[in-house]
Amino acid sequence: MESVGFKEWSAVCEALERGRQSILLRKGGIAEGRDGFSFKYEKFFLFPTWFHEQSEKVRDKTIELRQTDPGNIEIRLWAKLELSRTVVSRVVAERLEPLHILQPEVVRDRFAYDQAPGLHVAFLRVFRVVPSWTFPNEKRYGGCRSWVNLSEPPMNLAFEPVLSEVEHEKERTRFLAIVGEGTNESVRGTTEIPSPKSSP
After folding, report:
1. CA 3 – CA 170 distance, rounded (Å)
2. Among candidates 130, 150, 16, which has minimal Cα distance to 80?
């Protein structure tokens, strides 16, 4: 089966794992290709990335930054994309603050980056991967791109939802109240929780 990883800051992954964040905000890296960035996969693992300045770029100072072993990648989360939006209003982008931990200036910089102002925003259902999946880091995972192809995951992985159904629906309602029911929405349907001890 195809297995895909989405590269995201280790601090953001930690916030997602704690239920402190329920969205992803992305503009796209320089290696995204001619068509630019999109949330093109419905299901994916969260691939943590690390750099020293992360602690200065997040608002939640209780987040414990895990300095990753440069020789190995530890996958702790799997996500299902439920909704996505292209946000072209700076005001709407700022109103998303309760749903993420990024500093306001980080969001502003991402919004204004490149010739077309705006952000790609995804609302997720997030699951803990138990046990975590560790594998050697490779050169093919590098570069300024968001998506990386992974090997087939182990068969013994279980997937535990970070938020309960009630908590998740509250977050979904908050997200839709901010971004609205516009045509940029991509509805992926109800979230089917992966069966324990099976690959997603």
Report:
1. 29
2. 16
**Can you tell me the distance from the alpha carbon of 42 to that of 83, in angstroms, rounded to the nearest whole number?**
10
Q: pTM, whole model, 2 decimals?
A: 0.86
Backbone angles phi, psi at 62, to 5 degrees: -85, -10
pLDDT digits (tens, 9 = 90+) for 142-172: 887 889 999 999 999 999 999 999 999 999 9
| Ramachandran area for residue 28 (φ above 0: left; ψ -120 to 50: alpha; else beta) | left
Read off the tokens for 187.
């509805």
Task: Report how far apart, in Å, the C-alpha atoms of 155 and of each of 136, 159, 192 are.
Answer: 18, 12, 18
Do residues 45 and 150 lie in contact, with contact meaning Cβ atoms separated by under 8 Å?
yes
> Of 40, 36, 45, which Cα lies nearest the Cα of 16?
45
Measured CA to CA, the distance from residue 63 to residue 11 in angstroms comes to 7
Sign of dihedral through CA atoms 98, 104, 110, 112?
positive
